[in-house]
Design a protein that fits this description.
six-stranded antiparallel sheet; Beta-Lactamase; alpha+beta; 458 residues
């Protein structure tokens, strides 16, 4: 393939009707002529792609008859390796007989396989793209008229080409009435400044369908002093619909993000910089959005939590798609510690791999759980005092009272002792009862304070 597009010459005459370029045959097609028997008369036709040999013969006969004084044809020929190669031959008659038939001709032969492939690909692309060429010319009075419009206008959009060329109000056929002013303004500016024209507008087809178009072109100054512009018009309806759907989707995401009751943000996974924050984050952390966007994740973490942050970020960088949640400590602008339950997920933001975080403030929940734990401890302490400490003087008191039932056998000194012990036991029980009451009162007070704190934080 190193000789692609290189021209090789040939010469033909009636005295020497068989012409070959052995250099081309060997270097481009891979055959060793005349040793290679593939070029034998009975096998030569088989080297052509089916049907191409007959076309070559027909074109060559017309050239020899004098129907055409030039000769050009492309055909497919089998390479030595078995692949098909496109060959282009061009020739020109340079000597004629009395009947004006060529008797001598010269020409070139070259391989054009790559060009053919590219041409085929281009045709395939253009086949699926709606393109209209519109030439607009501006006269000395600055009037703009349609000078040419390609047949694709009728084929794709049902715009009547002939009528369009004769209609002075051609614009009404080219665009939606609400877009006419925009097109005229853009065209006028482009012609006046001789600058690139670009505009998007709507067309209403004969089926009352809205078609979105984009026109581009560069104005050119003609020899007679007039100006014209060849506008390339493409159908961008699908792209426009996709863009609108994408915009609608982005708006939905933006609304969900901004109006979420939970603080949320998007951050750069490499720099850890905040890229976007919602209203709840601004309100809960005390920073303005502008301040947030100049900060990183480390700025809302206590120093004691920085190693934890670094560890989690490294895990996430190794596994970008990782979904995780965890409990962490944050600090607001005032320096207050906030306990949060974080939910982190991957997101593509402005074309970059980022993370979106939702931070649920669980500070009140943790305070309440701590209160419940302390309350349970108080209840356990009360239970212990009732079952152990309070029971001892109570049992002792009950035993002393039983002794009094047999008071006739009790002497004066023993009676005095019993009375003293009864009083001591009763005082001991009174002290313990007061302690239990104090514990209950302290617990109820802490419960009220906790409720007031929760209300104040809302």
């Amino acid at each position: 393939m190193g000789f692609v597009d290189k021209h090789y010459g040939w010469r033909w005459s009636e005295e020497d009707p068989i012409f070959k370029n052995n250099n081309f045959i060997h270097k481009v097609l891979g055959y060793d002529e005349p040793k290679d028997q593939s070029f034998a008369t009975e096998k030569f036709k088989e080297l052509f792609y089916p049907g191409d040999f007959d076309l070559l013969q027909k074109s060559w006969q017309e050239f020899k008859k004098g129907s055409h004084h030039s000769f050009e044809i492309s055909y497919r020929f089998r390479h030595k390796d078995g692949s098909w190669r496109w060959i282009k031959e061009s020739g020109l008659a340079n000597k004629f007989n009395s009947s004006n038939n060529p008797i001598v001709g010269i020409g070139t032969i070259q391989e054009v396989t790559d060009k053919k492939k590219k041409t085929t690909q281009l045709k395939s692309i253009l086949k699926n793209v709606s393109i209209i060429i519109l030439r607009l010319r501006q006269d000395s009075n600055n009037n703009i008229k349609v000078e040419y419009i390609s047949k694709e206008a009728l084929q794709h959009w049902n715009i009547p080409c002939e009528t369009l060329l004769q209609d002075e109000n051609y614009m009404r056929n080219l665009a939606h009435k609400d877009d006419l002013g925009k097109i005229r303004s853009s065209l006028g500016h482009s012609f006046a400044k001789m600058k690139f024209f670009e505009c998007q507008w709507r067309v209403v087809s004969q089926e009352d369908k809205i078609i979105w178009c984009q026109g581009v072109g560069t104005p050119i100054l003609d020899k007679d002093g007039s100006r014209f512009i060849d506008v390339v018009i493409t159908d961008i309806t699908k792209e426009k619909i996709y863009t609108e759907q994408l915009k609608e989707s982005e708006n939905k995401y933006y609304n969900l993000f901004q109006h979420s009751p939970q603080p949320s943000w998007v951050y750069d996974l490499e720099s850890l910089a905040f890229l976007n924050v919602n209203t709840a984050a601004v309100e809960r952390y005390g920073y303005s959005k502008k301040e947030f966007l100049s900060m990183t994740l480390a700025d809302i973490r206590p120093k004691s939590e920085l190693r934890v942050l670094e560890k989690q970020v490294n895990i996430t960088r190794k596994d970008y798609q990782n979904l995780f949640h965890g409990y962490f400590k944050h600090c607001n602008k005032k320096g207050d510690i906030i306990l949060v339950h974080l939910y982190s997920s991957p997101i593509i933001y402005n074309g970059k791999k980022c993370r979106q975080v939702i931070a649920v403030d669980i500070s009140e929940k943790m305070k309440y759980l701590e209160f419940i734990e302390n309350q349970n401890k108080s209840l356990k302490k009360i239970g212990w005092m009732q079952s152990h400490e309070l029971r001892a003087p109570l049992v002792r008191l009950m035993g002393l009272i039983n002794l009094l039932n047999d008071h006739e056998s009790i002497c004066k000194e023993e009676m005095k002792y019993i009375n003293t012990e009864i009083i001591n036991s009763a005082n001991e029980m009174d002290i313990m009862t007061k302690n239990i009451a104090k514990i209950i009162n302290d617990t109820q007070l802490k419960e009220k304070e906790n409720d007031l704190q929760i209300i104040a934080n809302r």
